[in-house]
Amino acid sequence: MKSYLSILLIFLVFILTQCNKTPDLSFDNIEYLDGNEVKNIEVGNGKKTVVHFYASWCGDCKREMPDANSVLSKAGDDVRIYYLTDDTPERMAKMNKKYNIPFNTFQVNKSLKNVGIHYIPLTYFIDENGKQIIAQAEQIDWHSKEIKTFLGY
C-alpha cells in the first residue's frame, strides 16, 4: 500500500511541476486576425504592452472583465493593449457588448492551446524593452499597486 501511495505522490509532483500556468511566450510568434488581415503582437519598441487572453465561456474572465476594462482604460496611449481569444467572431461581439469592452479584441490565428495558453484568464505586462514584468494566470487583482505602477498611475 505504501509503495502505491509513493508512486502516486511522485506522479502528482511530476504533473504539478510540468504545469506552467504562465508560460514564457514568444509574442512575436502569436498571430491574430484584425478583420481579414493576419498581424503579430507588437511588444517593446518604446511602449508598454498588456496582453490579456480570455474566453467567453470562462467564469473568471467574465468576473474580472469590468475591473480589467476600468483599470486598463486609464493607461493612456503609451500602453498597447491586446485582448486575445480563440472565440468565434459572434461570441467576441456578444462579450464585447455585454461587458462594454473599450478595446479592440482579436481572435488568435490558432487555438489558444496551439500558441501555448493552457490557463485563462492569462495576462502579461511587458515593458518598453519587451521584457515580461508581470505574468498572471487566473483571476487577477487589477487594482493592485504593482499593476497601477506598471501602467503609470
Summarize the structure.
The protein has 153 residues and is of the alpha/beta class. Helices cover 32% and strands 24% of the residues. The longest helix is centred in the N-terminal third of the chain and has 17 residues.
Can you describe what's shown?
With 153 residues, the chain is an alpha/beta fold. The chain has four helices and seven strands; from the N terminus they run αβββαβαβββα. The protein has helices at residues 2-18, 59-72, 89-99, 145-151, and strands at 31-34, 37-40, 48-53, 79-85, 105-108, 122-126, 132-137. A seven-stranded mixed sheet has the order 2-1-5-4-3-6-7, covered by helices on one side. A hairpin with a 5-residue loop joins strand 6 and strand 7. The model is unreliable at 11-20 (pLDDT under 50).
Task: State the main characteristics.
153 residues; 7-stranded mixed sheet; 4 helices; alpha/beta
Biggest sheet, in brief? 7 strands, mixed
Query: What is the helical fraction, as a range of percent?
Result: 25-40%
Give the rounded overall mean pLDDT: 83
- Evaluate the radius of gyration: 17 Å
Q: How are the SSEs ordered, and which strands pair?
A:
Blueprint: H1 2-18, E1 31-34, E2 37-40, E3 48-53, H2 59-72, E4 79-85, H3 89-99, E5 105-108, E6 122-126, E7 132-137, H4 145-151
Parallel strand pairs: 3-4, 4-5
Antiparallel strand pairs: 1-2, 1-5, 3-6, 6-7
